[in-house]
What we know:
single chain
Amino acid sequence: xxxxxxxxxxxxxxxxxxxxxxxxxxxxxxxxxxxxxxxxxxxxxxxxxxxxxxxxxxxxxxxxxxxxxxxxxxxxxxxxxxxxxxxxxxxxxxxxxxxxxxxxxxxxxxxxxxxxxxxxxxxxxxxxxxxxxxxxxxxxxxxxxxxxxxxxxxxxxxxxxxxxxxxxxxxxxxxxxxxxxxxxxxxxxxxxxxxxxxxxxxxxxxxxxxxxxxxxxxxxxx
Length: 222
């Protein structure tokens, strides 16, 4: 018996501060949320994606208003290949699990003195969810979607929840608070536009949460 797979696909441009699941744009948070910095080079992290989550930590997309949290993902792009932004424990990336009420733009670090290219992707892609009930696995779901729609596979932005399609073996992180394995929130591809793509070394990003503890983690593999 196959498990349904929920792909997220490129649904065109979106407003940079839209309260939706999206790749790029500007990060939203609650009052007092600070822009995270890299523990290795101390520079500000680049904002990658925003995911809307329901109360159980599962991701929702589009106009679904049932979300209880927002998950904001960041990674260091100040010294690509040097700071270990692929690791969930290096401090060179950040996953912020925040309440979804009272969202506002997170203040930019350093004001206008910081180069926008170091903070933002440069394009905002809305993510549209699509459930494939009969796909054998993630890669099979992507192939089936592309064959059915005639759209390129690069328009698949990843998947919500489900089982991660690991490239280098299972790296599910443990929650820092309760030490239990965290639950998958999303898997991300680099994006449809190579100029503004997230940098996963041509690989995939993986986001996890532990809603009871308010913890989240991010890593990537290639």
